[in-house]
Amino acid sequence: MDLGTGLGLGLAALGRPAYINGGRAADLGSDRSVDALRRRTATVLDAAYAGGVRYFDAARSYGRAEEFLAGWLASRPDVDDVAIGSKWGYTYVGEWRADAPVHEVKDHSVAAYRRQVAETRSLLGDRLSAYLIHSVTPESPALDDSSLLRELAQLRSQSVRIGLSTSGPRQAETVRRALGLSVDGEPLFTVVQSTWNVLETSAGPALAEAAAAGRTVVVKEALANGRLTAGEAGPAVTEAARRAGAPVDEWALAVALAQPWAARVLTGAVTVEQIGRNLRATTLGLPPDAAADLAEAPERYWTERASRAWA
């Protein structure tokens, strides 16, 4: 299925009580109960859909995100024009506790895939458009596991696009490796989801190669988990946004949207007001090189990301 272009909504920050995005205390308040986040998710999905967003992204490790999304779809029988992506490879183990010592556990084995694809299918059924291996790095065994790759190809034969998300300072290496993998003579991975933002641009050339090869590129963490918002942005980012005449978050999202190889750019919005700001970013029309001099060394960026607290 065509995943379309433009803004998409990711549910990482809505489907569980804790995440590494900044500003959650102000955005979500103290009520992080299942019912409260279920209602909030539906409200944000409504606002995104009303604003023209037609791609929604979940994962097995996003707490109850798939469940919340499935419930919203069931309550909106007229919504038949959206693409749904989800991911497997992490298991949520936080037990709905914001202070859990561990929130998710990574496992890229065939056994984990079989369990999680069944769980995803039980919730999203044939609404699932794309299924991605979650957070592949060069160290992951997933791209070397022929049994796993063949099972993913079986899912592909059921009209589900197969993809992967990437993380870490060597994203470009992972993307290029995935581009070369075929099963039964057909490229296996046709969706690539990677972190790209004005602070972490290292995957850009590889993502351009993926787009040129006909893959759909989805950008995640365009606001760097809150570092590219007014509350956390540094002086250089703040000044660049000021020169463009836009708030920091709208400017940073607009830069990601301007990349010619990016089909979808995900927002992690958790409020209706944030959806409105995100939608305004789609109208700024910035050049792709609007922030060419702001990138950090990838190792520095990912070290900082790893240090962010779950809240």
TrEMBL record:
Q: Name one Pfam family in it.
A: Aldo_ket_red
Q: Where is the NADP-dependent oxidoreductase domain?
A: 41-296
Output this protein's name. Answer: Aldo/keto reductase
Q: Which PANTHER family match?
A: D-THREO-ALDOSE 1-DEHYDROGENASE (PTHR43312), NADP-DEPENDENT OXIDOREDUCTASE DOMAIN-CONTAINING PROTEIN (PTHR43312:SF1)
Species of the source:
Cryptosporangium phraense
